[in-house]
Amino acid sequence: MIKEEARFSETVDGLCRNINERISPLERRHTEMPLPNVAEVRKLVEMLRAMLFPGYFGDPQFPAGNVRYYMGATLDAAAKIMTDQVERSFCFFCDKITARGDAGAPPSQLSSGNASASAGGCGDCRHKSEQMVAAFMKTLPDVQNLLVTDVQAAYEGDPAATCPAETIFCYPGIMAITNQRIAHELYKLHVPLLPRMITELAHSATGIDIHPGAAIGRSFFIDHGTGVVIGETCRIGKRVKLYQGVTLGALSFAKDEHGVLVKGIKRHPDVEDNVVIYAGATILGGETVIGHDAVIG
Predict the structure, then answer these.
(1) Count of beta carbons in the 10 Å neighbourhood of residue 121
(2) pTM of the entire structure?
C-alpha cells in the first residue's frame, strides 16, 4: 500500500508551488493572525438584526419589559465580535513588521486595552478596529430609522403584504437592504473585506446582489428580488422601487496603459427620487441618470 504522505505527493507539490499572497494566507506577513471568519460574521449580522428589529430576531424570549438591558448586552457582545473581525480584516492587508512574544494566541485571550493586544497585529490594527467599531455603533440608530422606512415602503408597495411584520420576517428585499445598510456604514469607514462579506451573506440567501458601496435613500423597496444587481457606485434616491431581475450595472471597465482595470471611478447609474423600475430592466453606465418620478417598464 502506498504511504499516505506519498500518495498525493505530486498534487501536493503542485499546490504548494501555487501558493502566493493573492490566493493563500500562507504568504501573508501576519500568518499568525486568523482570517475573518464567515461563521462569526454571520453571527454578528444576526445580532445586529436583533438590535435593529427588537423582538423579531435573536432571543425568542425577548424581554419586552427590559429592552434597554437586552439591547445593551447584545450591543456589547456584537461589538466584541466585530472588533475581532475588523481587526482580522485590517491585518489581512497590514505590512507592518511585528515584534511580539504572544503571537499565536487567539484575540479572545488577549487584553483589548493593550496596544499589542491582537494575535500577530502590529498594534495599529487593533487600535483602528476599536475606533471603527465605536464609530459604527453610533450609526445604528440612523440605520434603524432608514430600515423602518424600508419596511413601510415594502408594506405599502406590495398589495400581498398583510402587515409590516410580514415584510420583516419574510421578504428577501428587507433582508438584503438590512445587510447592505449595515455594510455601507462599514464601507464608509474604509473597513476592508467585512462589508463585502456581509452583503454576500444576503446575496447567497436571496439572490439580490447589492454592493456595500451603493448609496441608497430612505423608503427603498425591492419586490420579489431574485436577480437584482446594484453596483458599487450607484446612487439611489428616496422612495425607489425595483422589481426582480433589475440590473444597475457598468457599461465597460476603463484600463490604464498597462491594461489594468482602473479602480474607484463612477461606473454605475444614478436613480433619482420616486422611480419605479420594473422586472428585467438593465440600466448601465456611470453617466446614466434616471430622473425623478420616472417609470422604466
Answers:
(1) 28
(2) 0.86
Note the pLDDT tens digit of each residue in 170-209: 999 999 999 999 999 999 999 999 999 999 999 999 999 9
The answer to whether the beta carbons of residues 247 and 214 sit under 8 Å apart is: no
Angle (CA) 192-195-200 rounded to 5° is: 125
In angstroms, rounded to a whole number, what is the distance separating the alpha carbons of residues 88 and 108?
12
Q: Is 278 exposed, middle or buried (0-12, 13-18, 19+ CB in 10 A)?
A: middle
Is pLDDT of 257 > 50?
A: yes
Beta strands in 51-109 (DSSP E): none
Task: Kindly give the pairing relationship between strand 229-230 and strand 209-210.
Answer: parallel
Query: What 3-state DSSP class applies to 248?
Result: strand
CB 199 within 8 Å of CB 212:
yes
**Which tens digits make up the pLDDT trace of 23-46?**
565 556 666 778 899 999 999 999
Which range has the top average pLDDT, 14-18, 68-72, 86-90?
86-90
Question: Strand locations in the chain, DSSP E?
Answer: 209-210, 215-216, 221-222, 229-230, 235-236, 241-242, 247-249, 270-271, 276-277, 282-284, 289-290, 295-296
Q: Which three cell numbers stand for residue 42?
A: 454571520
Q: Are 187 and 256 in contact (CB under 8 A)?
A: no
Please report the pLDDT score of residue 262 as a whole number. 82
Measured CA distances, 263 to 34, 118, 211, 212 (Å) = 28, 31, 15, 16
Spatial CB neighbours of 239, under 8 Å, sequence gap ≥ 6? 153, 217, 218, 219, 220, 273, 274
